[in-house]
Amino acid sequence: MAEHTSRHDTFIRSIMGNQQIALDYFRSCLPANILDKLDFSTLRQLPDTYVSKELQKSISDIVYACQRADGVGEVKISLLIEHKSYVDKYAPIQIGSYIFSGLLKQIGEGEKPSLIIPILLYHGRSRWEYQTLSSLFGGLEPELSRFLPDYQYVFHNLGEIPDEQIQALHNKFLAASLLAMKYSVLKDRLSELIPTILKLAGEMEQNLQTSLIVYTFVNSELSEQQIIELITPLPTQIKATVMSTLDIFVEKGRKEGLREGELKGKIEGQLEKTENAVRNLIKQSLLTDEQIASALEVTVKYVADIRRQIKEA
């Protein structure tokens, strides 16, 4: 279960570390009356977290900040990633804990408290409906209900969004990623959608494509032969990207009798692509070395060495 949780967390962090993807995601899931209040030209990712140690087992967060459209103060937009595979009716309590933990951290760091807008992203199998804290205390008289904290959150349940609506998003890589997440626990449906996911993601930079391809195929649990059969009808560029990313070409090359030198050249080419992907993630996101290493399946030392080379250049 821990590996399953880490896989989702690593993938979401890798794509949401790209500010344009995060911006398009916020625009797709926040209500219009909230979007009107925010100045997204000032959007920036924050390197810290508001998640307490107690919440880390079930929720992780990605925090962005932007100014209000009226120029009065700043707003924190927090994407909360739900790690449970089951419906948790006590999620409103967790979210309340998150909000107050974040406010306390702001005060502790000498900041003026700024509004936190939580977005709970859920992509599990079970049906889950939005609930507030007050729903856990049914039948309270008004005299008593006033002692309950009153807050809302944005509940983004991928299971309730039609595939057609997801595919219609302006950012096609975001659409591909949301589809991969939506069906990550429904392997037969995910396998059917893989050609669509790969085509939607075709125009994105290589390091993000790599993250999506690895995440999708690992969740699908398809065999090497099934993957080859699945991607054979796809356009040459997409097929080459998948083959390269998953290292299938190595085994396939051996079966076809490639000479050792040719095989070595292909492996060296893959290593160069991996290094370039690591460099791009370091330069373009706020991901830690551990997160980059997990996303690209390399060692933390490998990432740290490349980061040092970039600083010394």
Mean pLDDT across all amino acids: 83
SSE series: HHHEEEHEHEHHHHHHHHHH
**β-strand number:** 5
Largest sheet: 5 strands, mixed
Separation of the first and last Cα atoms: 41 Å
Measured by DSSP, the beta-strand proportion falls in 5-15%
Taking pLDDT < 50 over at least 5 consecutive residues as the criterion, the unreliable ranges are 252-268
Q: Overall 3D geometry?
A: globular
Tell me the structural class: alpha/beta
Strand order of the largest sheet: 1-2-3-4-5
Helical fraction equals 40-55%
Radius of gyration: 21 Å
Number of helices, counting only DSSP H or I runs of 4 residues or more: 15
Nutshell version of this structure?
The protein is 54% helix and 12% strand.
Which keywords apply here?
alpha/beta, 313 residues, 5 strands
What's the topology here?
Layout: H1 2-16, H2 19-29, H3 32-35, E1 38-45, E2 59-68, E3 74-82, H4 91-108, E4 115-122, H5 142-145, E5 154-157, H6 163-167, H7 172-182, H8 187-200, H9 206-220, H10 224-231, H11 236-246, H12 248-255, H13 260-284, H14 289-296, H15 300-312
Parallel strand pairs: 3-4, 4-5
Antiparallel strand pairs: 1-2, 2-3
Helix pairs in contact: 1-9, 1-14, 7-8, 7-9, 8-9, 9-11, 9-13, 13-14, 13-15, 14-15
